[in-house]
Amino acid sequence: MSSVVVLGCQWGDEGKGKIVDYLAAEADYVVRYQGGCNAGHTIKVGNETYRLRLLPSGVLQRKKLVIGNGVVVDPEVLLKEIEDLKAKGFDPDLSLSDRAHVTLSYHRLLDAAEENFKGSLRAGATMKGIGPTYSDKVARYGIRTSDLLDPDILEQKISQNALLKEKMLNLVYGVSAQITKEELLATCRRFGEALQNYIVDTSIVINNALDEGKRVLFEGAQGLLLDIDHGVYPFGTSSNTVAGAVCTGTGVGPTRIDEILGVVKAYTSRVGAGPLPTELTDETGRRLQEKGKEFGTVTGRRRRCGWLDGVALRYASRINGLTGIALTKLATLGGFDPVTICVDYQVDGKTVSEQPSSIRVFSKCIPVYEEMAGWPDLNEVEWASIASHGYAALPEETKSYVKRIEGITRTKVKIISVGESRDATITTTNVWKS
Ligand code: GDP
Ligand code: IMO
Ligand code: MG
């Protein structure tokens, strides 16, 4: 048995998809445990680029795939994703949790209405209905995948929700919307029929796999600073994105997790609203954005960019209990000289070394920067050649940057990514226990 968790340590888009696809070569199962189709995980294989939102990023390595109970599933998006991959020659071997909650059209309408209502406190949501689906789950209005297969329960739940959601939209948010029970029921029945062969108790699937000595890879979505409890509330998402969510989101006990690998992008990017201390609104920020091709996978929005935030990384190490780091996009920093890392914040003249809980304090944080020597702006072929020779072949300045990150986080950098493709990756330490 061996299990590895791959999760985001910043504001999402750290390159989790690329790292999961890379590690999936040696895994048996790849499991999503939280989030929904707000995630956009991009994977480049050869000349083809794949953008995954709900299917685990092991699909391109043709591994067994699991969507756990902690994920919120928009069946329309999932079915389209399966169809698109089938058209490209992949036949997803998927198990979908019978306890996962379903996103329907009224969730998307509510997402837009709520964001609009929140004004300056809006997170800049992806508008995929994620927040309202998790709200329904917690308020016990939610519809689970297994309900799609139970006509009586489905009818009761849809009747309740059609009435309530129409009132909320019209009377609370002033959005004129007609939520028709019959239409919703027909849609849900269609979803049930299309998904029925995938719907199972996935906790049993994963635990059995671990019992049989299989390798299981858990794939996080979003990142620590978007976490509902530990993130920059309310400027984040509606699920727990931290390592603890693996257990609640899959029905696997904490004693069965071996490795927690945090994905860290070599600089900061953020799509959506909220304070971002190391954001660069100058020419350097624009260069990072362009060189890193920082556009949202799901919404196409331009990502805000800035220097690496060491305070966030220390926090990520503590909250997740990281056992290793996968460091991505190191090549993108090539040509920036000096490269700069934020090691602390200053607020009202005082040093702050830990993530503040208050958004008022966080928005006043001024980064304390450390400068390091940069490294050359090499091309794709040169970086791939370095990767093929391993860690020792990296420029000395790049190695110093890696070591500084290890020092700040007190965590070993076990994987280094210097390009989009699989072969632009260096493993310094094997992450599988057996
Ligand atoms: P995720 O949401 O964490 O999976 O990340 P996204 O897929 O949204 O964004 C990361 C982007 O960076 C993707 O387009 C990846 O292909 C790309 N990427 C990952 N690692 C590297 C790297 O080391 N270098 C470069 N140039 N691109 C990378
Ligand atoms: P991956 O898995 C980056 C952000 C949104 C918004 C906030 C709330 O690709 O890293 P939501 O739709 O979840 O209610 O939006 O969270 N956000 C992400 N940002 N990467 C993601 O996923 C994100 N998923 C949500 O931009 O600020
Ligand atoms: Mg993404």
Descriptive keywords:
13 helices, 434 residues, ten-stranded mixed β-sheet, four-stranded mixed β-sheet, binds 6-O-phosphoryl inosine monophosphate, binds guanosine-5'-diphosphate, 20% strand, 34% helix, alpha/beta, 20 strands
Polypeptide structure, described:
The structure is a single chain. By secondary structure, this protein is of the alpha/beta class. Helices cover 34% and strands 20% of the residues. It is built from 13 helices and 20 strands. It has helices spanning 16-24, 75-87, 105-118, 130-139, 151-172, 181-195, 202-211, 245-248, 283-291, 310-320, 359-364, 380-389, 396-409, and strands spanning 2-8, 29-32, 41-45, 48-52, 64-67, 72-73, 93-97, 101-102, 199-200, 215-219, 259-265, 268-270, 304-306, 308-309, 324-328, 339-347, 350-352, 366-372, 413-417, 425-427. The strands form five sheets. The protein has a ten-stranded mixed beta sheet with strand order 9-7-5-2-10-1-11-15-19-20, with helices on both faces. Strands 14, 16, 17 and 18 form a four-stranded mixed beta sheet that branches. It is globular, with a radius of gyration of 22 Å. The relative contact order is 0.15. The mean pLDDT is 97. The structure holds guanosine-5'-diphosphate, 6-O-phosphoryl inosine monophosphate and magnesium ion. Guanosine-5'-diphosphate binds at residues 8, 12-18, 40-42, 44, 297, 328-329, 331-332, 417-420.
